[in-house]
C-alpha cells in the first residue's frame, strides 16, 4: 500500500498544473482564500521538497520505532495519532467546499463510498470488542462524511438555482 501511495504521489506531482494555471484547477482555492502554511508545507512548487520531507519523516519514525517500539506508551501514542489523522481527513474538503460555497469537482460517488465505508466500519466497531477510541474516531469521521453529503446537497441546490436564472435571462434576451 505504501508503495502504491508513493507511485500515486509521483504521478500527481508529475501532472500538476503550472503555477499560472493554478486558478482553474478544482482543488485550488477558487476565491483566493488559501491559508499560508508554515514553510508552505505540502504546497511546494518543486518535487524535491516532497521527497525530502518523506525521507526525513520515514527516517525519523523508523528510528523512533527502533528505539521505542517495545514501549506500550509509544505504540499507543502512535496509534492515537494515526486514528486522529484518519478521522480528520475529510476536514480540508469540508473547509474548501464551505469557502467556495460549491462542491464542484467533488464526485457524489466519493461521498457515497466514504459514507458506506465509515458506516460499515462503525457497525464493525460497535459489534466487536474494539476500544472506545476507535468508535469515537469512526463516529467523528462519519459525521464529517455526513457534512460533506449535506454540502453536496445544499450547494447543488444553490448551483441549480443560479443555472436556472442564467437560462431564464438567456431566453428573455
From TrEMBL:
Superkingdom of source: Eukaryota
One record GO biological process: phospholipid translocation
Main localization of the protein described in the UniProt heading: membrane
Any one GO cellular component localisation term in the record: cytosol
Localisation: Membrane
The entry's keywords: Membrane, Transmembrane, Transmembrane helix
Alphabetized Gene3D superfamilies for the sequence: 1.20.1280.290
Any Pfam family the entry gives: PQ-loop
Spans through the membrane: 50-68, 74-96, 108-127, 133-155
Membrane topology: Multi-pass membrane protein
Keyword Disulfide bond assigned: no
Regions annotated as coiled coil: none
Name of the featured protein: PQ-loop repeat-containing protein 1
Natural source organism: Orbilia oligospora (Nematode-trapping fungus)
Amino acid at each position: 500500500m505504501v508503495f502504491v501511495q508513493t507511485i500515486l504521489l509521483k504521478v500527481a506531482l508529475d501532472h500538476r498544473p503550472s503555477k499560472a494555471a493554478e486558478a482553474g484547477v478544482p482543488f485550488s482555492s477558487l476565491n483566493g482564500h488559501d491559508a499560508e502554511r508554515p514553510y508552505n508545507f505540502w504546497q511546494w512548487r518543486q518535487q524535491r521538497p516532497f521527497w525530502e520531507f518523506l525521507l526525513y519523516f520515514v527516517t525519523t519514525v523508523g528510528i523512533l520505532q527502533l528505539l521505542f517500539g517495545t514501549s506500550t506508551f509509544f505504540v499507543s501514542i502512535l496509534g492515537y495519532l494515526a486514528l486522529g489523522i484518519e478521522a480528520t481527513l475529510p476536514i480540508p474538503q469540508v473547509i474548501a467546499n464551505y469557502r467556495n460555497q460549491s462542491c464542484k469537482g467533488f464526485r457524489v460517488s466519493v461521498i457515497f463510498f466514504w459514507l458506506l465505508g465509515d458506516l460499515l466500519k462503525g457497525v464493525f466497531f460497535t459489534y466487536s470488542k474494539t476500544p472506545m477510541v476507535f468508535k469515537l474516531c469512526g463516529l467523528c469521521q462519519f459525521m464529517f462524511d455526513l457534512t460533506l453529503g449535506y454540502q453536496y446537497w445544499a450547494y447543488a441546490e444553490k448551483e441549480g438555482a443560479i443555472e436556472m436564472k442564467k437560462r431564464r435571462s438567456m431566453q428573455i434576451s
